[in-house]
Write a structure and sequence with these properties.
229 residues, 5 helices, alpha+beta, binds manganese (II) ion, Fumarylacetoacetate hydrolase, domain 2, 5-stranded mixed sheet
Length: 229
């Protein structure tokens, strides 16, 4: 095959304990997936089906990176999230079988230009440029499920310049990882290399130039991102 221009490089994530890398295809994100407070009992009768948006695959950046402060925003927000990496594709995947499609897990930060998102919501416009801008998906070292299993409990938190801003538990997710995979795979065919960002706990807020933001999830390598001016 001869291309008329150089094809883009394949975006990829480093893997814990290996020199090999995980090639990234698409990044799907789940909207609002943590109740503001732990549900006190049983199932939430008000829960609606999950909704999804996406970021281009080449928005991934790794751990320990200093990012230029994004353009066109006065209100850049952090969102600490568990990232699921798909190793085996499929459509209409049953929740019972969904975890067998997961290759591994990582810490992620769903960077959001909140002002652009608010404007898009108000005007009924798409979220693409509020969510899918350059380098909008910092993601940490990917841990194979063969090493760590499938975490469905444990703390998820975000520190901004060392101060805790977000704290939740993976068990607070309204839709579990198997349920998310089952829903999402009715809309699109998932493929190896797809990532799913599974939503953020309460406590999101603005990032200022010069800030250091760190995402920590029990059992995973933390993700640190610095912001330049
Ligand atoms: Mn998010």
């Amino acid at each position: 095959m001869t291309f008329v221009i150089h094809p883009a490089a394949t975006p990829a994530l480093p893997i814990a304990g290996s020199d090999a890398r995980f090639p990234v295809r698409r990044i799907y994100c789940v909207g609002r997936n943590y109740a503001a407070h732990a549900r006190e009992m049983g199932k939430d009768p008000d829960r609606e089906p999950p909704f999804f948006f996406s970021k281009p695959g080449d928005t991934v950046v790794g751990d320990g990176i200093t990012l230029p402060f994004p353009s066109q925003t006065q209100n850049l927000h952090y969102e600490a999230e568990l990232v699921v990496a798909i190793g085996t594709g499929g459509s209409e995947i049953n929740a019972d079988a969904a975890l067998s499609h997961v290759w591994g897990y990582a810490c992620g930060n769903d960077l959001t230009r909140r002002d652009l998102q608010a404007e898009a919501k108000a005007m009924g416009r798409p979220w693409d440029l509020a969510k899918g801008f350059d380098q909008s998906a910092p993601i940490g070292l990917l841990h194979p499920a063969t090493d760590i299993g499938h975490p469905d409990t444990g703390s998820i938190l975000l520190l901004q310049n060392g101060e805790e801003r977000q704290r939740g538990d993976l068990s607070d997710m309204i839709w579990s990882v198997p349920e998310i995979i089952a829903f999402l795979s009715t809309y699109v065919t998932l493929a190896p290399g797809d990532l799913i960002m599974t939503g953020t706990p309460a406590g999101v807020g603005p990032i200022a130039p010069g800030d250091t933001v760190r995402v920590e999830i029990d059992g995973l390598s933390p993700l640190t991102t610095r912001f330049g001016s």
